[in-house]
Amino acid sequence: MAKILIVDDEPDTVDLVKLVLETEGYQTFVAYNGEEALEMIKLDKPDMVLLDIMMPKMDGWATRKKIIDNEETRDMPIVMLTAKAQPIDMMIGLHVVGVTDYITKPFGRHELIDSVKKALGE
Predict the structure, then answer these.
(1) Cα 64 to Cα 106: distance, rounded to the nearest angstrom
(2) Which pLDDT score, from 0 to 100, does residue 82 have?
(3) 64/99 Cα distance (integer angstroms)
């Protein structure tokens, strides 16, 4: 099953996402900010990333840019999982930055699973 990196600075969100994805059989890894995420990507080579936007040290937008600037990871599917629910934020994510999908918090279990499956091409 696919390996998914969860990047979020909220432990409760991380725990919930891990529970949902591991119940579905996915292997998960966790980073609590963008800098940790980039290290985890190098070490664990996930199949996709679930990425929060508002985080300390390096936000999700800067993290996404570093991922796409790296030739080895530029095609990695990234789903934004964020509390930024304004339509402009979603448009920027999907059409300007080019993330695979954009989920707003609070999210439903089925919404999360469907988005992950879509990003992984399942």
Answers:
(1) 22
(2) 81
(3) 8
SS3 17: helix
Burial letters 74-85, b for 16+ CB under 10 A, else e: eebbbbbbbebe
CA distance 98 to 80: 10
Residues 6 or more apart whose Cβ sits within 8 Å of residue 76: 41, 46, 47, 48, 49, 67
CA–CA dist 110, 116 (Å, integer): 10
The total domain count for the chain is 1
DSSP assignment of 72-90, as one string?
TTTT--EEEEES---HHHH
Tens-place pLDDT, residues 24-41: 999 999 999 999 999 999
Q: What is the model's pTM? A: 0.90
CATH of the domain at 26: 3.40.50.2300
How many angstroms separate the CA atoms of 60 and 81, rounded? 10
Q: Is 12 helix (H, G, I), strand (E, B) or coil?
A: helix
d(CA 117, CA 115): 5
